[in-house]
Amino acid sequence: MSLINYSSREINCKIVYYGPGLCGKTTNLQHIYSRVPQETRGKMISLATEMDRTLFFDFLPLELGQIRGFRTRFHLYTVPGQVYYNASRKLILKGVDGIVFVADSQIDRFEANVESYMNMLDNLTEHDLNLEKIPFVMQYNKRDLPRVVPVDDLERELNPRKAPYFEAVALRGTGVFDTLKVACKLVLKTLG
Amino acid sequence: MVKGNWALFEEDFWAINTILQNLIQTSSSKSVMLIDKTGQLISSIGEPPGFDVTSFSSLAAADFAANQQLAEMVGELDFATLVHQGANESMYLSLIANRVILVVLFDRKTSLGLVRLKARRGGEELLSVLNKLFDKLQYKNEDISSTALGAEFTAEAESEIDSLFKE
Q1: Looking at chain A, which residue has its C-alpha nearest residue B52?
Q2: Which residues of B touch A188 (CB under 8 A)?
Q3: Nearest residue of chain A to residue B150 (CA atoms)
């Protein structure tokens, strides 16, 4: 939920990375953290299990600096992808300003993508939110792997509203910033 | 023009900060924060904490959210207050208007009883300020529009995004 403080002159927006387990949501945030200037990023928080699987969420605050006198920040969150952590996913979607859906391009993860996408729609509905009205960016990750679904097929199944999409290899950083930039810009536009 | 789901104006901000300042003094606590339930910091008053307040806010909201789920499991609507007590530093959290979280950080110079008492009173005062603010947000959108930012803001922010977020 965007928060504009006219007195302390701050604007905060929340972007959530959604997607099935092991699709690369945390990897997106880790890459962003490693590449943005130190003064732009805040502390990255990962509530993960011993196996490095996200338990509750990852959180990374990014600060654009002063824009026309306003300190403008984006708060990036990931949701836990594993099916049984739905309560956490639902909580993190609360007050969301923009969503990045990270899909795993591998053929054997196709069903997991669809399931996660449907789960996202259900959880949004529970918050009285409609994907049509929320800035949304699709990222097709792991494009470097050998057995991947063609982008056209992924688009047909996961992106019927034709939101902007990017092919990515998050481990190498490919497509990560393209995705983030468009998500941030779309959020700013909706606030406008 | 930029509009938020939540907007804080000068008079509300100062009204809130006056209440928080008073709470620190009367409870002898170290610092007080007001955090939106979705994890955004609204205001922080008192000793500047030696940690990242943005991350702290996100975790405090998550703490409350997790406890709310636990409350539902045991048949409660919510746990309206939470206390985390350490050997030296402690924190008291309470939910106000089901929308914002008041966090009081205190040490051994005061007692949980006093913090709880003063936080409850401060919470009541905050409730009245917040209710007025929510009414304003709901019914007087023109107030927001008149103070909102122009297209220049969006353009400048986009250019900053391009320069900061790159390989």
Answers
A1: A43
A2: 2, 154, 157-158
A3: A192
**Contact check, Cβ <8 Å, B52/A43:** yes
Average pLDDT of the residues in A30-35: 96
pLDDT tens sequence across A76-112: 999 999 888 888 899 899 889 999 999 999 999 999 9
The shortest C-alpha distance from B14 to chain A (Å) reads 8
Query: How far is B165 from A121, CA to CA, in rounded Å?
Result: 28
Angle between helices A110-126 and A151-158 (to 10 degrees): 30
Architecture of domain B10-164: 2-Layer Sandwich (3.30)
Check pLDDT > 60 for residue B148: no
Is the pLDDT at B49 greater than 90? The verdict is no
The CATH number for A178's domain is 3.40.50.300
Neighbour count for residue B113 (Cβ, 10 Å): 8
Cβ(B24)–Cβ(B106) below 8 Å: no
The range of the structural domain enclosing residue A80 comes to 3-191
State whether B154 and A189 contact (CB < 8 Å). Answer: yes
User: What is the overall mean pLDDT for chain A?
Assistant: 93
